[in-house]
């Protein structure tokens, strides 16, 4: 260490960066690649679906709906609206399955569930004990999930299509999370109820509640912080904050659901955010079998009402436009773990990207609203692909 300002160029070697600056670049690269590898392993091995299946097989068919009622702090079967129902298409799928796997314990099951085995541990521990040969990185990540509680994170800034920075309002710790979808969808000053896992220098957004909170709830969260930490203010050790959040998990979860139920009741709930849906497709397919579902007509009717509101319509269109224009930065298994911008450098890659782009555009055509055709044209020009016929 030289003690020089890391921003200074006076390192003694003209044209070179200081050692401290050079050291930061590989660290960021390692953090980003570690997070990407974890996501790839989760997707390839269908971990979420396997843990859901494990809960179903071990504790009986009544375990999932009972866990759901506990998850959303329901006092009775009639305490809820359509948004809060237990279905395979619930916007809470990612949040619920993370909570079910890494936080919930079967000891909290109602006594009427006679199929319960009495195992008093989170399902992820059972999964790791049952599959000791799981990939070491994945095992390390899942173990970290168990030890990481959900908390409230204020979004400080973001880089669309790549990452976001946030501050844990309970512990005060700041994180930079490499997540292309969340970096696109989240907005500065929003507050997200999420589980952010720290492992080997990487920050991974394991799951987040689908409706971010507005900035005006910050004071209420800081009041909750005093209750959780049992102190009025000041810095706290990360380990202490983590321990207290685990102990007060129900308090934090109840706070979020209290806000949501009020928003649903007064009609102020905006469109939800889906963060890492691709990791949970297998769980969604499984829950279609294990959970009751709403009819397509009910979903379509609800979406039509939402999209009829001009402000909501504009926000939804903006969100999907951002997703479409920034997915080209994401490394995809179908493209050999390359981004679309990298893959188009070869003829074979161009064919794959063109096919993927056509599939995405086809999916967009099924939405209850349309994107500006120039959005598609600009993307195809950016990738060096011919425009579709309907855009001429």
Low-confidence stretches: 1-26, 112-116, 277-282, 292-303
How far from one another are the termini?
60 Å
Q: Radius of gyration, rounded?
A: 23 Å
Number of β-strand runs: 5
Q: Please give the domain count.
A: 2
Q: Report strand order across the widest sheet.
A: 3-2-1-4-5
Shape: globular
- Main sheet, how many strands, which sense, barrel? 5 strands, antiparallel
User: What is the arithmetic mean of pLDDT?
Assistant: 76
Layout of strands and helices, then pairs:
Elements: H1 19-44, H2 47-59, H3 63-71, H4 93-102, H5 123-130, H6 136-146, E1 151-159, E2 163-168, E3 174-178, H7 180-185, E4 191-199, E5 202-208, H8 218-229, H9 238-247, H10 249-266, H11 281-290, H12 296-307, H13 310-326, H14 340-343, H15 347-365, H16 373-383
Helix pairs in contact: 2-11
Outline of the structure:
The protein is an alpha+beta fold and 392 residues long. 50% of the residues lie in helices and 9% in strands. The protein has two domains: 240 residues, no CATH class; 97 residues, no CATH class.
Question: Could you characterize the architecture of this molecule?
Answer:
The structure is a single chain. It is built from 16 helices and five strands. With 392 residues, the chain is an alpha+beta fold. It folds into two domains: 240 residues, no CATH class; 97 residues, no CATH class. A five-stranded antiparallel β-sheet has the order 3-2-1-4-5. The longest helix is centred in the N-terminal third of the chain and has 26 residues. It is globular and about 60 Å long. It starts with 18 loop residues before the first helix and ends in a 9-residue tail after the last helix.
């Amino acid at each position: 260490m030289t003690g020089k300002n890391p921003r200074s160029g006076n390192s003694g070697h003209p044209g070179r960066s200081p050692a401290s600056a050079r050291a930061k670049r590989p660290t960021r690269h390692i953090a980003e690649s570690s997070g990407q590898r974890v996501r790839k392993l989760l997707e390839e091995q269908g971990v979420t679906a396997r843990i859901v299946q494990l809960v179903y097989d071990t504790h009986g068919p009544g375990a999932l709906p009972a866990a759901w009622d506990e998850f959303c702090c329901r006092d009775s079967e009639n305490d809820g609206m359509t948004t809060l129902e237990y279905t395979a298409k619930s916007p809470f799928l990612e949040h619920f399955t993370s909570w079910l796997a890494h936080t919930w314990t079967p000891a909290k099951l109602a006594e009427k569930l006679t199929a319960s085995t009495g195992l008093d541990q989170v399902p992820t521990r059972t999964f790791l004990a049952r599959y000791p040969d799981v990939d070491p990185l994945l095992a390390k990540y899942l173990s970290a999930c168990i030890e990481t509680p959900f908390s409230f994170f204020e979004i400080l800034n973001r880089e669309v299509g790549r990452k976001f920075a946030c501050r844990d309002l309970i512990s005060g710790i700041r994180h930079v999370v490499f997540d292309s979808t969340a970096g696109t969808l989240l907005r500065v000053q929003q507050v997200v109820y999420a589980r952010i896992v720290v492992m080997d220098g990487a920050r991974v957004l394991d799951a987040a509640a689908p409706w971010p909170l507005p900035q005006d709830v910050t004071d209420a969260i800081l009041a909750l912080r005093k209750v959780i930490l049992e102190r009025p203010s000041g810095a706290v050790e990360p380990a202490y904050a983590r321990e207290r959040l685990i102990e007060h998990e129900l308090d934090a979860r109840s706070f979020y659901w209290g806000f949501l139920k009020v928003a649903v009741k007064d009609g102020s709930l905006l469109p939800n955010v889906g963060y890492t849906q691709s990791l949970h497709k297998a769980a969604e397919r499984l829950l279609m079998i294990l959970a009751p579902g709403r009819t397509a007509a009910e979903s379509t009717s609800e979406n039509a009402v939402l999209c009829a509101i001009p402000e909501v319509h504009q926000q939804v269109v903006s969100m999907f436009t951002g997703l479409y224009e920034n997915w080209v930065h994401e490394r995809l298994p179908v493209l050999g773990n390359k981004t679309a911008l990298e893959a188009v450098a070869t003829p074979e890659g161009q064919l794959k990207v063109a096919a993927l782009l056509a599939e995405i555009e086809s999916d967009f055509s099924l939405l209850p609203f349309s994107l500006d055709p120039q959005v598609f044209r600009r993307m195809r020009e950016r990738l060096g692909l011919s425009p579709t016929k309907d855009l001429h």
